[in-house]
Design a protein that fits this description.
There is one protein chain. This protein is α/β, with parallel strands linked by helices. The protein has seven helices and ten strands. A five-stranded parallel β-sheet has the order 3-2-4-1-5, sandwiched between helices. A five-stranded mixed β-sheet has the order 6-7-10-8-9, sandwiched between helices. The mean pLDDT is about 90.
Length: about 230
């Protein structure tokens, strides 16, 4: 017998948004693994779980996915992370790897699960509340209505994909936007009119929900929702 790996989505921040199934899976696993960019980093995902369930009897395991600019170093960290998970599963421990938002949306876990599965282990993905759905709810706006379209893109690593998305979609969710606020602002201004909502560090002490201000400093967990203003009567 070998352990089973679960990718457990824990939602955007509020422990009450952890699903009943996610809580049940966490309660039934021997080990809780959480991703970190550097050793010893505080885990928001782990804080969410602690706010929703008693995990005092669980083995807590940090899995480091380095963010070095050196591709070889990142690859080495990733291989070590997968090997660490596989070794734990070989011990017949069921492992839940917790991830913010939903595991299928810009999550390292989906790559991890394929590599772990290729080693002969069983795995399952538990969905959760995506951060942009939580953000739209907090801003009290619809993501889409009627026959409108929606694009979800990332602005990480200097990507300008959001520009193409804004040109072609009624509504655009820009994730990982914290380092691209000035470029996003410039693109929106070029439209001559759009509603822009920023959801930054939702659920944390420095939460900000409001209009885009390119001179403001935003937190790492920042999402921007752009809704084109339509002509009167449309």
């Amino acid at each position: 017998m070998k352990g089973k790996l679960y990718g457990v989505s824990v939602g955007p921040g509020d422990p009450e948004l952890l699903t009943i199934k996610a809580k049940r899976i966490i309660g039934g696993c021997d080990t809780i693994a959480y991703p970190a960019r550097v050793p010893g980093e505080r885990s928001m995902a782990l804080d969410i779980v602690k706010g929703a369930a008693d995990i005092s009897d669980k083995r807590i395991m940090e899995i480091v996915f380095g963010m070095s600019s050196d591709k070889a170093a990142r690859s080495s960290d990733y291989d070590a992370a997968v090997a660490k998970l596989a070794a734990t599963l070989e011990e017949e421990d069921d492992v839940c790897m917790i991830t913010l938002g939903d595991a299928t949306v810009y999550s390292t876990f989906m790559r991890v699960c394929k590599d772990v599965e290729s080693r002969g282990f069983e795995m399952e993905v538990i969905p959760g509340v995506p951060s942009f759905c939580d953000g739209a709810a907090k801003a009290k706006i619809p993501l889409v209505t009627g026959t409108e379209g929606l694009a979800v893109v990332s602005a990480s690593e200097g990507s300008d994909l959001f520009c193409t998305a804004i040109d072609n979609f009624d509504n655009v969710v820009i994730m990982k936007a914290y380092g691209s606020m000035e470029r996003i602002s410039d693109k929106v201004e070029s439209l001559g009119g759009a509603d822009v909502y920023v959801i930054s560090n939702a659920g944390l002490d420095d939460q900000y929900i409001g209009p885009l201000d390119k001179n403001r400093r935003y937190g790492y967990f920042t999402t921007v929702i752009v809704k084109k203003q339509k002509e009167a009567g449309r």
